[in-house]
Amino acid sequence: MSIELPDVIATYFAADKKGNAQALSECFTQDAVVTDEGNTWTGRDAIRQWMANASTKYTYTVEPFALAEDGDRTVVTSHLVGNFPGSPVDLRYFFVLRDGRIAELEIVP
């Protein structure tokens, strides 16, 4: 099933697929906040480092398959398969967009 993601979210998943931490971080506002696995990263530099660490630590594929709205958040549900504990898993990505970029992202099972 193919879903049509907002442009910046599609760019985020494309950068994630390539393991391109720099391109992924550019999807975010300067003061963006990411929460994943109980940790929080604030700002593009911290977000770039988060992605760089994740892409060297694990090999995985992510396939978005559902899109919904939850108040001011865009929720993308994705299937992840890889060499990480608990694989495979479906995760929900809660995006808050501002001025065409990602201002907040929370990733939860």
Topology:
Elements: H1 7-18, H2 21-25, E1 28-36, E2 39-42, H3 44-57, E3 60-70, E4 73-82, E5 89-98, E6 101-108
Parallel strand pairs: 1-6
Antiparallel strand pairs: 1-2, 3-4, 4-5, 5-6
Description:
Strands 2-1-6-5-4-3 form a 6-stranded mixed β-sheet, covered by helices on one side. Helix content is 28%, strand content 48%. It is of the alpha+beta class. The model has no long low-confidence stretch (mean pLDDT 94). The chain has helices at 7-18, 21-25, 44-57, and strands at residues 28-36, 39-42, 60-70, 73-82, 89-98, 101-108.
Q: Tell me the strand percentage band.
A: over 45%
Query: What number of structural domains do the residues give?
Result: 1
The DSSP helix count reads 3
Strand order of the largest sheet: 2-1-6-5-4-3
- Radius of gyration, in Å, reads 13 Å
Contiguous low-pLDDT stretches (5 residues minimum) are: none
For this structure, the CATH topology is: Nuclear Transport Factor 2, Chain: A
**Which CATH-level-2 architecture?**
Roll
- Helix-strand category: alpha+beta
Largest sheet: 6 strands, mixed
- Characterize the overall form: globular
Number of strands: 6
**Distance between the ends:** 20 Å
The CATH top-level class label: Alpha Beta
Task: Work out the helicity level.
Answer: 25-40%
Q: Which H/E pattern describes the elements?
A: HHEEHEEEE
Describe the oligomeric state of these chains in a short phrase.
Answer: single chain
Overall pLDDT metric: 94
